[in-house]
């Protein structure tokens, strides 16, 4: 059932190209002219036109997918988006109106906190859209509309292909929303959709270099503390990378918006502290390079993940670099998270942990 892989997690990492294709299948119009989502019944174009703000609610990895979702929606639709972890949402008395679209994201569709947030949103009259991997789950049944991610069953406790399929769902939904409310030109949709369709092959390409991540992970596994840094959407992705590493390798790590280091955390950087830096955003590369210099000046060892377009520049400033294919900047999380998943996997393996069933954790958290 593991198809020759040692663990479900590794199998699921390698299933991502298929999960991307399955989640896109039937949802892209011929000639890349737009997106179709006939499953949206309550969220008609008219209803979407009336939406003034968005709340994206989820837990753990699904929350991290929502952080990327925010960038995608704000960019495509130009409507303000807030993210909350589901266990906090209700308790801050959020301002929810019938013009608020509440998006809940859940692989299992059974997470108690997420379900409670969904119910609160409905009580306030907001339309609720679910992004879930399980057809007929509680979240899918109670939401007004559902976009299913076709990642297939995810067995490993550490979520991988569900996260990346959630990114694909956000990409599709944000483009759809822009399209049906007249905010997107066909030329732009074509460019976006062509870039999306290239993602599965790009993941296949970077998976061919997986052993390089094994070497990095084995090095990381010798440390008890490390940092991840990124800016913009890369910051959202490193938060996911850090969670993945903690969850299965039990190595303490923190993910920082790189510009925040000098506001406190830099005090923790000393000789040989490993820092994993993610750089995929052209507009932020220079700022990231300055942040990397701050780390290097204090003795930190910086391993970078960047795309082909920036490999040379970044290679000069860091101690090692892993190169991923180039895509549109806002689509990069669908590629850049993969090496981080591999680092977590191989670090867990190097430490002799139970990769698929980390201590203290359950696949589906049905208590609040
Ligand atoms: O099933 P859900 O997506 O609602 O689960 C949410 C979190 O419990 C889950 O993503 C958790 O953070 C993962 N184990 C992370 O790998």
UniProtKB/TrEMBL annotation:
It is found in: Cytoplasm. The keyword Signal does not apply. The active site is at 363 (for fru-6p isomerization activity). Keywords: Aminotransferase, Cytoplasm, Glutamine amidotransferase, Repeat, Transferase. It catalyses: D-fructose 6-phosphate + L-glutamine = D-glucosamine 6-phosphate + L-glutamate. Its EC number is 2.6.1.16. It is an enzyme of class 2 (transferase). One of its GO terms (molecular function) is glutamine-fructose-6-phosphate transaminase (isomerizing) activity. Residues 44-183, 216-358 form the SIS domain. Catalyzes the first step in hexosamine metabolism, converting fructose-6P into glucosamine-6P using glutamine as a nitrogen source. Homodimer. This is Glutamine--fructose-6-phosphate aminotransferase [isomerizing]. The lineage of its organism: Bacteria, Bacillati, Bacillota, Bacilli, Bacillales. The gene is glmS. The chain holds residues 244 to 611 of 611 of the full protein.
